[in-house]
Amino acid sequence: MTILTFTLILLLGAFVAGLLGSLTGLGGGVVVIPLLTLLFHVDIRYAIGAALLASIATSSGAATAYVKEGITNIRLGMFLEIATTIGAVIGAVIAIYMPTNTIAIIFGVVLIFSAAMTVRKKNEHAFSGGSALAEKLKLNSTYPLDGKLVPYKLTNVVGGFSLMGVAGILSGLLGIGSGSLKVLAMDSMMKIPFKVSTTTSNFMIGVTAAASAVVYLQRGYMDPGIAFPVILGVLCGAITGSKLLKRMNPKTLRIIFAVAITLVALEMIFNGFQHKF
Amino acid sequence: MKQVFSKNYWSDKDISLLVGQILRTGVILASSVLVIGGIWYLIVHGQDAVPNYKDFVGEGKSNTTISGIIVGAFSKNIPQIIQLGVLLLICTPIVRVIGSLFGFVIEKDKLYIVITLIVLTVIIGSILSGVKG
User: Fold this and answer.
1) Can you give the residue range of the structural domain that contains B45?
2) Where in the cell does this protein reside (chain A) (predicted)?
3) How confident is the model at residue A159 (pLDDT cuts 50, 70, 90)?
4) pLDDT per position as a tens digit, A182-194
5) Residue A156 neighbours by CB distance under 10 Å
6) Is B122 on the interface with A (CB under 8 A)?
7) Is residue B111 assigned to a domain?
8) Model pTM?
9) Positive or negative CA dihedral for A75, A73, A244, A114?
10) DSSP secondary structure code for residue A151 in this structure
11) I want to staple B104 with a disulfide (CB 3.0 to 4.6 A). Which of A87, B39, B71, B112 is the partner?
């Protein structure tokens, strides 16, 4: 295969990954790793490097729209980023010592979990019984709903913060945004309405990924020939996806994709046990 | 200059607009460099065989250090031009954190100035420690 053919196929694959990642809320990075390893037989380390870049691209590209709407809770995001960035650096260091087959198996498990999270019931209501710590850290805020500002309070700050640390470690280890784990920490533990948690999670993904990306770049996991088609493809796919989202409700697509991604995840786990990475 | 740092000059909304602007500019800048480097790479190497990505060898020094990338890109070396785009992309969220710091300084929110500085320290520490493995 020539470089031209490889690049064009990869560009198209990354576009689809970005499109599906954005329509389902799974994120572009998560789809890039199986695409590169299972389809293109690229070493998982190059795939992780490219996936991190895809996560930063989608997070920064999509966030421009969210910040304008004023839903992102910047204080909450910044506070939780202490946990995710420290976790991300720890995860990137663990990745040096962990066998690639083990990384592939962990990736598969996280992928199944993320797929399940995209079809779960969402936390739509503002919570009013906030904790004292949330008050002290100024984490309670408001969000716009039908033209009005709805106040919300949050609870279990310590639990959410710890789960964010785990999300950070996985992000640094696997090169993904861990968006689903971040949303779980905010939705289920801290009782934040999902409109706020999805955008705040997106705000955090870029910063978390950047913290581990600098480690991966310096370790030589980022290959220019893979990086540019992946970033450009995922970015165009994600932008197209966010435009489509305004006009359609991809509920059926979400379920189909969750099933497909579970099958891909099982193949990653199986190959990991077969020592194919 | 004094006016720039007063709270009246910047409202909360302006700060979020500024943060949004930083992200948009960063992404556009990074993608432009990637498009230029990518097209150039395809013109020169398009007909070559795909490198062996199946076995991991890692990138050379010119693609993994900030100085190597910048020196290479300005000497018009194609791989380093692409890596410069990669570097710009990685910098975008970091610049965004600095933008938020600026916002908290204007609001005189000491607690969040400290929190933002911790996040920045972790990221910069991660860059400077140069964990290569």
Assistant:
1) 10-129
2) Cell membrane
3) very high
4) 888 888 889 888 8
5) 17
6) yes
7) yes
8) 0.89
9) positive
10) E
11) B112
